[in-house]
Design brief:
heterotrimer, A mainly beta, B alpha+beta, C mainly alpha, A: Immunoglobulin-like, three-stranded antiparallel β-sheet, B: alpha+beta, Immunoglobulin-like, 2 helices
Chain lengths: 106, 149, 284
Amino acid sequence: MARAVIRLPSTARRGEIIEITTLVQHPMETGFRRTQLGEAIPRNIVRSFVCAYNGEEVFRATLHPAIAANPLLTFSTVATESGTITFTWSGDNGFSVTQSATITVT
Amino acid sequence: MKSRRDFLLAAGSIVFASVAAGARATPAAMHEAVRKVAGDAEIRRGLVKLQIAPLIDNGNAVPLTVTVDSPMTPDNRVRAIHVFAEKNPLPNVLSVYFGARAARARVVTRIRLADSQTVTAIAELSDGSFWSDAGDVVVTLSACLEDIV
Amino acid sequence: MERRQRLFGDAVGHDHGHVSPGPGAPARRVRAAVCFLLAVAQPAAGAEIPAEERRSGYEFMSRATRSMQDDEATNPGVFWLLDGEALWKRKTGAAGRACADCHGDARSSMKGVAARYPAWDETRRRPFNLGERINACRTGRQKAPPLEHESRDLLALEAYVAHQSRGMPIIAAPDRRMEPFLNAGRAAFMRRQGQLNLACTQCHDERWGRKLGGSTIPQAHPTGYPLYRLEWQSLGSLQRRLRNCMIGIRAEPYPYGAPELVELELYLMWRARGMRLETPAVRP
């Protein structure tokens, strides 16, 4: 099971802009590399990332092979209400990782 | 001045495109990728700030930050940012889309660069306009060759 | 890539200043190596770096790569740490034991351990590195099969254990039993090898800080292993790095687990004594 690491504050004031840093474990095989015997190593990448805040999409990304291995994405959102922020990565070969974090907004 | 330099660069590189084999995107592929995103709209320089180191340790993980100067109000906001690398095998690098709650049009990531080149970021605004910024990067290779495995 | 022969001795085989490049070696790299060889046509002197001038590879990296190492939310090594923490608590082997069953909380029991490795192996009467020690526990105490070299699980455990010593100085405890192995490691560091006929000391003692093909030559202190190397796009061990160095000078690399590699590790850790551990480091 691939791991993901999220960093975001656990509490925030209403209207505050919070920064979220996400990192997911994935080799992001470009499909352009070859083995020593000359065989092509097939492409295997994370294709998409979605962040939703209490179900509403906040940030979405489409990734291409040019994103470095173990993709890092940092973005921000406004803290509007307490709840759950979910993070979903999906990609080739049925890759799918979901993580969630709770946030308390005062 | 900028557009004339771009024209000269494009004219010169078309000659090389036919000689070089598939390991790098042709200027036509880059052009096509940009058109897919922006259609026929004019892409103006400004509003977007692309931050990338001019000289990097290793092309496998190059930190990149793109910020767009925008109030991000419901009727004046950034819809998306698209990043391109003209000399990678594929020109597309990343596309990000901002939802209603996104307060800042900013993304930080790490990208791969196959060669020294210009990285371009194009922002799509809610009023349908397109703005861009570009950064030149020199990519150095690891001095000692290693096995892949 | 065909296997290379290792050439011994001080004689530099060149004809009119041209050393034949292997297939795939870009011209500029060979030019750099040739100029280098012409300049250094004497036996490797082996001048040690004075203690106060020693610098970790961290200081030779760009600010961006340094912050990648410092921030645990952006350091990809964190994935191996999380794996290692899970493995530490998992019962395994015929004995059905977890590392935690004997060693408790790694955060206290493993503090300072990695800083004094390679250590003396009483059973085989020679030094062993942290990975070999972990496998000795697995086979001896957990009654489980040993983990493969460079496998994800072994790297995860090594990283997790070594991480507990992060920030602590490397200890080179004087141990008479280890002396012959330390000397063997030092001799390997000073010995010219490979088709490029280079000794480690020539780059890393005498020319650190200068450029080789666009990269800055570091002093080669193993202060952050296992580390995430951008070139590998993965976590790897010191032995992997040493093997890559040997391939770089066109010498046949020792296989994983070779005693020569452990002796070299021992010497390198002794050479870096007093410097602080950074595991898991990030390096280009």
